[in-house]
Write a structure and sequence with these properties.
The chain is an alpha/beta fold. The protein is built from 12 helices and 8 strands. The protein has a domain of 208 residues: 3-Layer(aba) Sandwich (Rossmann fold). It has an 8-stranded mixed β-sheet with strand order 1-2-4-3-5-6-7-8, with helices on both faces. Strand 3, helix 2 and strand 4 form a beta-alpha-beta unit. Helix 3 crosses helix 4 and helix 6 crosses helix 7. The termini are far apart.
């Protein structure tokens, strides 16, 4: 009888956990079902994108774990400042396809095709984290389309001929990570049971930095982490990014003539400060802004960074 009671208790607890997970996942799926459209007939397959605002075009290339929704807050703020923002979901994220060759070069070509579809001859291009690789490719291969270039915490060591930092390297751990990013439940469970560890591993940010930040910045960091759900709809994009970040493929950076701004942080655990410095040194007249702490999601510096970006766009 005791064993039966224990089993019933475990079963009831498990049912409550599953019900909470299912409710959270429904809410997240409903969130990403709004606010975007899909261009179905591109030669790369479906391309999902959001568009907001009026004015000079700005294209936002999101980071790993993202999609159009990851950059929605920045898009709204840029729209309020007088820009028309286009925010595609990169290859393998949400409702965008992942073609046979999801390379940064092909992603850049897909960005240009989308700009053509939207009748935008030129745009300022913002590449965030792993999105910096395709932003760089656009600036090199399609200079006439790139009005200016902004790279935030660029996970772009591969563009300098180096191997980018990956949080996991052994085949066993990489296999486990792939299983987690294909499972909404496992990702959710890790979030609710070990948020600090997830902050450190996924956001490459010291949890103590987040704990010391303002409530607004704590909320922003948590939203970045939480809004990776549904992770199963981003799994292929995450795997694409993991491959290309770790595959050295030098880019002729000295050919970039667009005005360029780079921003990174000294304590970013993905060590984006290193490629940021190398890229800034290679691109003529590039400007580099660094902060001593804040991790990969620049905790405590969001207002400053947006001010830097707005000023740069205004001047270029």
């Amino acid at each position: 009888m005791a064993a039966g009671l224990i089993g019933a208790g475990v079963g009831a607890a498990g049912a409550k956990v599953w019900a909470r997970f299912a409710a959270d996942l429904r809410a997240q799926r409903a969130r990403v079902a709004r606010g975007s459209r899909v261009w179905m007939s591109s030669r790369f397959g479906p391309i999902e994108y959001a568009m907001v605002g009026r004015g000079a075009p700005v294209l936002l290339a999101h980071g790993a774990g993202g999609g159009f929704d990851q950059v929605a807050p920045a898009a709204e703020r840029l729209a309020a400042a007088g820009y028309q923002v286009v925010a595609p979901s990169r290859f393998g994220y949400l409702r965008s396809s992942s073609p046979d060759d999801p390379s940064p070069q092909n992603q850049a070509a897909a960005f240009v095709a989308l700009l053509d579809q939207l009748q935008m001859p030129r745009a300022s291009v913002v590449g965030i984290s792993a999105g910096a690789l395709s932003a760089l490719q656009l600036a090199v291969a399609h200079p006439e389309r790139c009005r200016s270039l902004i790279l935030l915490v660029p996970a772009a060591a591969a563009a300098t001929g180096a191997v980018g930092v990956l949080p996991l390297r052994s085949p066993i751990l990489m296999g486990l990570a792939e299983r987690v990013i294909r499972s909404d439940f496992l990702y959710w469970l890790a979030l609710v049971t070990a948020p600090g560890a997830m902050t450190r591993s996924m956001l490459a940010t010291d949890p103590a930095v987040v704990a010391a930040a303002s409530p607004m910045e704590q909320r922003r960091a948590w939203d970045v982490l939480w809004n990776v759900l549904p992770v199963s709809a981003r799994a292929q994009g995450l795997l694409n990014d993991a491959h290309f970040v770790a595959t050295p493929r030098p880019v002729p950076l000295d050919r970039i003539r667009a005005p360029t701004l780079l921003i990174s942080l000294e304590d970013d655990a993905y060590r984006t400060i290193e490629p940021a410095r190398a890229i800034a040194a290679a691109i003529p007249d590039a400007r580099l802004v660094t902060y001593p702490s804040g991790g990969h999601v620049w905790v405590g510096h969001d207002v400053e960074m947006m001010a830097e970006i707005a000023a740069f766009l205004r001047d270029n």
